[in-house]
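Obj.: predict assembly geometry.
Materials: sequence records (below).
Method: joint structure prediction, all chains together.
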Amino acid sequence: MLPAALRDAVLAGLVASALALPMLGFRLVDSATGLTLAGRFDLVAWAAGIVFCGRLVIRLLPPLPGLPALPAGTKNLRLGAGWILAVIALVLPFLPFADRNLVDKATLVLIYVMLGWGLNIVVGLAGLLDLGFVAFYAVGAYSYALLSQTFGLSFWICLPLAGMLSAGFGLALGFPVLRLRGDYLAIVTLGFGEIIRVILQNWQDVTGGPMGISGIERPSLFGLSFKAVAPEGHQTFADFFGLDYSADHRVIFLYFLILALALATNLFTLRIRRLPVGRAWEALREDEIACRSLGINPTAVKLSAFALGAMFAGFAGSFFATRQGFISPESFTFIESAVILAIVVLGGMGSQIGIVLAAVLLVGLPEWFRELQQYRMLAFGGAMVLIMLWKPSGLLSHREPTIRLGDPR
Amino acid sequence: MSLPLLDVEHVTMRFGGLFAVNDLSFSARSGEITAVIGPNGAGKTTLFNCITGFYKPQVGRMALRHPALDHLGGELLLERLDDHAINRRARVARTFQNIRLFAKMSVLENLIVAQHTALMAASAFSLAGLLGLRRYRDAERAAVARARHWLDRVALTGHADTAAGSLPYGHQRRLEIARAMCTDPLLLCLDEPAAGLNPRESAELNRLLRSIRDQDGIGLLLIEHDMSVVMEISDQVVVLDYGRKIAEGSPAEVKRDPTVIRAYLGEPEDADLPPELTGGPSC
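Observations (raw structure tokens):
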């Protein structure tokens, strides 16, 4: 066993050094004679050494004890966990240790939870591997920004419009890729995501190009503004409730806004899973030919999955735009799609709670380790490796049937 | 004698230079089991794929006639319908040679998915379902009742909530038949339903197919290798070889036909023939 483990660890170390050599091994130094190349081979050695040791430890230790498979009667347990998470999310801003920073981070995590839930419809339920999901997020964000700035529409009117526009783009992507599955579909969706980003970057007149769009209108609560001074004919939130103005009000309001949007997404998904459309999505994931033989039109089923998933990304995009107040194509790069997909896969395809946990791990942790600056992506990578070692099929991969014989109906 | 349910006329399916099905004509009737037999590569599965719309034959006509289709003109030409429309409109259901269940979904869910068309209409494309309207709840209850009926018929009621993929092979075969029946077909096409079954399961299958024929009164079209199944339950046998029909008739007629014997066994050497082809006892 030892020689095999050693050989394996050496191989891993070699791969690590090959990867580290170009990435860590050289750096450009600005010296008096101009730019010169300096070696940092000690770092390469460190990287290779760490990977070697880590691999050796993993090989020699007994396999990590996976969580015991959840017994069949865990439906109530999961339901309970869901409610507990929802209650924690509801009271979070009012907890004593919750400062503005924490609420801000929680808002960011919730955006990814919502995106994960949206992508879960496409990837987890319908089984269509989509690597360009961020395109719909971008469409939602730019729809809101442009509609709001061009026509002066409020956030609450733009939100459904942005969702509809994103769903439209989902259909537009869905049509050409209807015949594709698996890897081929992934490549086309990847390209679609890039096309949208490149258009945003280059269509200067409309999207502002790489400069992006700034000064995006912030949302109001039934007309109550969260600004320090209310615009003409409006009241501020603080005045109306007789509070002192605080910038925290808006942060907390935005937090509850995304929480409501995310919970709506969740309720919708939980509900539609139990409807014919949802079951057809899952059936399509399992076997498309059998679906056809049962009279299910795969075109309609695929397009509905693309459109609905994209719609939720559009909602999340509008929220992102209104929260940031500024958007540019840089926020919608491929890495975002990859993170969202990682959340869905690591959460356990199709599991709603798994996606929450994965989003906390993959988005929350790196935010937490922000003090580590550029090394914080190590937390991201580490979380991914650990989950895959511990639960190769995702955090919560148990599937609960959508209907049981003898269920009360 | 009932009118033909399915009329296959001069169907030819060519892949490049290969005639998988060549100028084939036959008919199948409601309330009868029509078996299509033939050596490997005779074009049986290709024929099925033509009838169920997965292939479009280059030549020929496949007409389905039934009083239940009167609102559609009484006759549907299958070669003009998309594969998913063949089940939905012409009400032709099928099973597959290599079982195609929705493996991760439960047995009951498999049977509910089969009723997608009806449930989709009742849920007004999910809107009524999203709102939880009574109309959809009633439709779902009816769908479960129908699924329950078929679970009882194929003796899988006790497995309703297990994942279909974890069932034993014989159960999966029966479930696939139940799933096809849940689409309320007029014609059920079975692609080697007895493949891989042991003799006891095979006998159960025969009982099930007979009960579908006699109780539900629909037509069954059956591809089979297992001669005991074919000889025992079919009312009509069509024998294919190299894509052509070489014989047609009752099981007794077919198994006496020298062309059939030659196709199955090469040159006739009576001594080597298995009992079911020489007219001996067929279990």
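Conclusions so far: Residues 102-183 of chain B form one domain.
To do: check interface contacts against the pulldown list.
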